[in-house]
Amino acid sequence: MQETYSHAELLKLAHDRLYPSLTNPAYLVQRRRRQIFGRWIEELPASQLTVLDIGGRYQPYRPLLGDRVRRYVALDVLSTQLVDVVGRGQELPFKSDTFDLVIATSVFEYFPEPRVAGAEIHRVLKPGGQLMLSVASVYPRVVDEEHWRYLPAGLRFVLEPFSTTEIVPEVASIGGFFRVMAASVSIFAKYNVVRQVVHHTIVPVFNLAGLALDRSSISSNDQIAGNYCALAKK
After folding, report:
1. Distance between CA atoms of 9 and 129, rounded to whole angstroms?
2. SS3 36
3. Which residues contact 169 (CB under 8 A, 6 or more apart)?
4. How far apart are CA 151 and CA 139, in angstroms?
5. Gap between the Cα atoms of 143 and 139, Å rounded
6. How far apart are the C-alpha atoms of 152 and 133, rounded to whole Å?
7. Which of 230, 59, 227 is nearest to 136 (CA)?
8. Number of C-alpha atoms within 13 angstroms, CB side, residue 1?
9. Would you say residue 5 has pLDDT above 90?
10. For the chain, what is the mean pLDDT?
11. Which residue from 94, 224, 90, 234 is spatially nearest to 160, judged by alpha carbons?
């Protein structure tokens, strides 16, 4: 199966996810994910990395790696001009101990058996290799093919084969609340013209309020964190 995006359209989709607009209901989590991933990438012990991007049809986080990449392999269930291998995360068609880094954002929600995917990623990573992922926690269902939402304990269970796992909320509960509100008004705006009005009026207000209150550190509670990032080391 193939998506019919042009190369330029794919690059724009990637850029818009890495640098989201205030009109984007996912602004708060995508902005923070860029910061978290950027910090983790800066702390990677090696350069000239062999990287696997699971769900890599857009590859928004590839630019954060800069000149650290020796080989970048994008795997996805859909074929685009940026995808190297069409396949599934639960059945990775690679030899063991192949990759230094695996990136998997917004894909673990789709795996019927996420522990199988976690074990497969662990298998294809070299000793000392790392997995960077992002998963939804408190968020409306996007499509019917989604299977899961994740809490920290569930993530640790899925990533049990790894030697160490760091889990970070992309926003605290205050930011998570405003992110859900922004997503909800977008969903309720049934018609595209109404949705565009909502995205350029109400959504930026929610995003700015969530950003200001999350930055103020009124609370570090993450019970309503919309997403979590995890860094797992083999």
Report:
1. 32
2. helix
3. 137, 176, 222, 225, 227, 228, 229
4. 12
5. 12
6. 13
7. 227
8. 6
9. no
10. 94
11. 234
